[in-house]
Structures are given as structure tokens and as C-alpha cells.
Specification:
This protein has 65 residues and is mainly alpha-helical. The protein has one domain (2-62). The chain is built from four helices and no strands. It has helices at 2-15, 20-33, 36-49, 54-57. The chain starts with a helix and ends in an 8-residue tail after the last helix.
Length: 65
């Protein structure tokens, strides 16, 4: 079940990537929900995903706190 939550989180983040404020809000929710190793996987995925979306690079501070 945990993997489903991780996949759902990525899906939500992809859907809201048009709005950095909404992206940050959903990212904060994800951090509260996911397990530590899932957060690490999400961090790696975010680095890859935001390479093509420079406007979201500034949002990564949330996961690096």
C-alpha cells in the first residue's frame, strides 16, 4: 500500500506542476505522509523532474529542510 501512496504523490505533483504555490503545498503534504525512504526516492525523482521545469527548482527547498 505504501508504494501506492508514493505513486499517487508523484501523480498529484505532476498534475499541479503548472502552479509553483500549489506544487509546494502538495509537496508539504507528501512529506507528512510518506515514509523516510520514500521521501528520499521522491527527492531523487524531483531532481530529475524539475530539470525540465526550472520554475519548480525553487520549490525544492521544501524537501531539503
Amino acid at each position: 500500500m505504501s508504494r501506492m501512496i508514493y505513486d499517487y504523490t508523484k501523480e498529484v505533483l505532476e498534475r499541479v506542476s503548472f502552479d509553483p504555490k500549489l506544487f509546494i503545498k502538495e509537496l508539504k503534504k507528501a512529506i507528512k505522509t510518506l515514509l523516510p525512504y520514500e521521501i528520499e526516492h521522491l527527492r531523487k525523482w524531483l531532481l530529475y523532474y524539475t530539470d525540465e521545469k526550472p520554475e519548480l527548482k525553487k520549490c525544492l527547498f521544501v524537501i531539503n529542510e
